[in-house]
Structure formats: structure tokens, C-alpha cells
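Pilot study result, target chain (203 residues):
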Amino acid sequence: MKQPIKKTTALACIALLLSAFVAPAWAGDPAEDLKQIEYKYYFRGKYPQAIEALQTLLARVDVSGPVAVRASEFLAASHVLAGAPESGKGVFARLISADPAYAGPDAAVFKPEVVDVYAQARAEYASLTIKNPAIAAADTSQAPLNPATASTSPTSKPIYKKWWFYAGAAAIVGVVAGVAGSGGGGDTPAPASGTIAIGVQVK
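Predicted structure:
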């Protein structure tokens, strides 16, 4: 009974020692860990190992920003060069959807077949935005919609102004017509009444 316990204890100690030496190698600065993966696996043509290491790196909480983008680029390239271009295109598609302004992998770093897969992902994204404008509108809706609503609000004011203008013009025309009508019917009486009043005052 004592021997199995000693064996399991020894194995547990060995596992703890190995984890203590191995874990810090991949748990340091994210940028440094990415460089290690690049030179240890990717640039040596060990693409399956690079895929596994990059996926582990991208799963870390402290990996974000440019480091995450570069790691995703190497992950996509590793898939492409490992014989799975569709998987690589999927990684590029996620990068493009997350940032439509993403310019793609550096042609000076990545092989032409990797850049070609990115171009395919970019073309498919462009076709999706054409067929479904809501995809593009989700990113740019705030800019065009505000000017549109702003441009429609001032157009309603001239309508009311024109309506009041025409109503006022009609009222003025009516008053002018009434004055003209009353003046035309009583031309002679008006001066006659004036002359009568003057005549009375003279007498």
C-alpha cells in the first residue's frame, strides 16, 4: 500500500516541477510570448504546433490590441500553410468584421498564399455588405442618420412659413379688394358729403 502512494506522490511532484518551469515560458509578456511562438513554430514550418500555441495565447485575458491582431494573422497564416485555407479565411473574416478598416497581413512578412486568402475574405465581406447593407450600416449608421434627421427638420419650417405666407397674402388681397370695392361705389357721395359740410360751415 505504501509503494503506490509513494509513486503517485513522486509523479505529482514531477508534474508540479514541470508546470513551474514550463508555465512561466508562456505566461510572460504577451508580445514576447508571441515572438517565441513565431520563431519556435511558425518560421520553422511547424504549423500545427503554431496553431495550438496561438490559440492558447489568444485565449489569454491579457492578450488584446495589436498583439491579438498579429497573433490572429499568424494563426490564419498557420492554417493556410497547414493545408486548411478555409480555416485561415475564417480567421481573417473575424478580423475584418471586428475592424472593417483592417488593412490585412504584411506582404513582406507573410507568404503570397496567405495574402491571397485574406483577399478572398475581404472580397466576401464586401459582397456581403453589398447584399446586406445592414452589415455596413451597423458600423456607419450614426454618421449618416444624424444629418438625415437634421436635414428633414428644417424642411418642415419652410412649409409652415409658406402656408402662413399664402394665408397672409390672401387676407391682404381680400382687404385690398374690399377697399377698392367700397371706394369705387362711393366716389361721388364722399366728396359730396364733404362739400355739404363745408357749405354748412361757410353759411
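One observation from the pilot: DSSP finds nine helices and no strands in the chain. A full batch analysis is planned for the follow-on phase.
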